[in-house]
Write a structure and sequence with these properties.
This protein has helices at about 20-35, 85-100, 105-115, 115-135, 155-160, 185-195, 200-215, 240-250, 275-290, 350-365, 405-420, and strands at about 1-5, 10-15, 45, 50-55, 55-65, 65-70, 140-150, 155, 170-180, 260, 265-270, 270-275, 295-300, 305, 320, 325-330, 335-340, 370-375, 385-390, 395-400. The chain is α+β, with helices and mostly antiparallel strands. The strands form six sheets. Strands 13-16-17-18-20-19 form a six-stranded mixed beta sheet, with helices on both faces. Strands 1-6-5-12 form a four-stranded mixed beta sheet, sandwiched between helices. The chain has a three-stranded antiparallel beta sheet with strand order 2-4-3, with helices on one face. A hairpin with a 2-residue loop joins strand 16 and strand 17. Helix 4 runs parallel beside helix 7 (about 200-215), helix 6 (about 185-195) crosses helix 8 (about 240-250) and helix 9 (about 275-290) crosses helix 11 (about 405-420). The N and C termini lie far apart (about 60 Å).
């Protein structure tokens, strides 16, 4: 098994000590088969014959006999960082965006000990599931039919006087019994069986073996036939919510896709678009930072229309070409701030297209406070690089960066970013 690590926009050689041509072709097939791969898988990997070029997708892409881990890098031309440090930063972002519930120390330790992001998710799933399984598996009353020596439940009269007519020592019984073979545990077992062959950690293998023993009474269900819609999370099973989310990542494909079908490449592929991940990370941190202020954070919402029928003397009502700002902050029905996140290094400058987009938002949402938000390079702090006006009105556009190192600092900086220039005061309800 050949496993390599590369950063966004980085390259790995083919036929020169890294991947063989056969392995490279297998990875390219996996990229083409992936839901996020786009045209010919080029949103994940590009084939340059002598090397493969990673794109703006992070995670692990796996094929038969090989896997490639892609880690984030804000500035492709910047100095190389320690792989464990970069992986820890990515795990931190995923923890916030997906609500994994990791402590800072736990995330850092896992990131430095594991040799890939996939190994981290496998370890996390195995640890959490084993802990919950040892506390007791959820069970539900299930209807059963059996021929017993003593009556249990109700007598099945039809079966008793037909099938069991020649067995007077047996009673045909219909009864309810607590059973662990429930939809939730069928999903958990399918995930355990899938990831068992994809971990190189002896500790994880030991935990997965114990889990297979604890789940021995649960039926094996193929990944494509799992009863996702039948799972009900209530107060008694609330502690299983995180495990269900992890199983969705590994089995189902909320942001990625697993290769479980017979015709697909072998392996588990776990990928996240960095633009989407950065947006979700900022939205979660901003929502936490504004808790108690009375402000609402809406992602990919708004839907104000750009165009509508024109009638002289009347206000235009839009009905086509809807807009979806990355993040809007609302005070009741009024939009007080619009943020657009960009996963790229600001050294490249602000594109005209981004400026035109923000100008449109200021007009459509009647919002005077707008922010273009970029990640800061490692070692740099958060800062507002410039604040310019948009003529002819009072609209104000901030160009800012945010550090991804610590959540507490990120929340404080985001809170200040939104508060700076708006008509409300931090700590009040408007």
């Amino acid at each position: 098994m050949t496993h390599l690590t590369v950063h966004e926009w980085g390259r790995v050689d083919v036929g020169n000590g890294d991947f063989t041509r056969h392995q490279a072709d297998a990875l390219l097939r996996a990229a083409r088969a992936h839901a996020l791969g786009g045209m010919d898988g080029t949103k994940i990997l590009c084939d340059h014959h002598r090397y493969l070029r990673a794109r703006q997708m992070v995670g692990v892409i796996a094929a038969d006999g090989c896997s490639l881990e892609i880690l984030p890098k804000v500035d492709p031309s910047g100095a190389a960082e320690n792989t464990g440090t970069v992986r820890a930063r990515l795990v931190h972002m995923l923890d916030v965006a997906l609500g994994l519930g990791l402590s800072t120390g736990e995330a850092t330790t896992m990131a430095h000990r594991a040799d890939s992001l996939l190994e981290i998710f496998i370890t996390l799933f195995a640890d959490r599931l084993l802990s919950e399984a040892r506390r007791g598996l959820p069970r539900l009353y299930q209807a059963h039919e059996d021929d017993l020596r003593a009556l249990r439940g109700r007598l099945n009269v039809v079966r008793q006087f037909t099938i069991c007519a020649i067995r007077p020592d047996r009673l045909a019984c219909n009864f309810d019994a607590l059973d662990a073979d429930v939809p939730l545990l069928q999903i958990m077992k399918a995930c355990v069986l899938l990831i068992t062959g994809h971990t190189r950690s002896a500790d994880a293998q030991r935990k997965l073996a114990e889990l297979r023993f604890l789940l021995a009474d649960v039926r094996d269900v193929a990944p494509g036939a799992l009863p996702w819609r039948q799972v009900r999370i209530d107060r008694s099973s609330r502690r299983w919510r995180l495990l269900l989310d992890l199983a969705q990542l590994l089995l189902r494909g909320r942001w990625q896709q697993t290769h479980a079908e017979a015709q697909a490449p072998k392996g588990v592929t776990l990928l996240f678009p960095m633009n989407d991940l950065f947006e979700r990370y900022i939205a979660v941190e901003l929502r936490r930072s504004l808790a108690g202020t009375g402000l609402d954070v809406v992602t990919q919402g708004g839907f104000a229309y750009c165009l509508g029928p024109w009638i002289e003397g009347k206000k235009v009502i839009g009905d086509s070409h809807p807009t979806r700002p990355d993040i809007i902050v609302k005070n009741g029905d009024r939009v007080v701030a619009v943020l657009d996140t960009k996963w790229k290094h600001l050294a490249k400058g602000v594109s005209h297209a981004d400026l035109y987009q923000m100008m449109a938002y200021s007009r459509l949402y009647e919002c005077h406070h707008l922010t273009l938000l970029y990640p800061s390079a490692p070692g740099e702090g958060a800062t507002v690089l410039s604040a310019r006006g948009i003529p002819p009105g009072p609209d104000r556009l901030q160009i800012a960066t945010i550090s991804l190192e610590q959540s507490v600092d990120a929340r404080a900086n985001l809170r200040r970013l939104v508060a700076n220039g708006t008509r409300w005061t931090v700590g009040t309800n408007g």
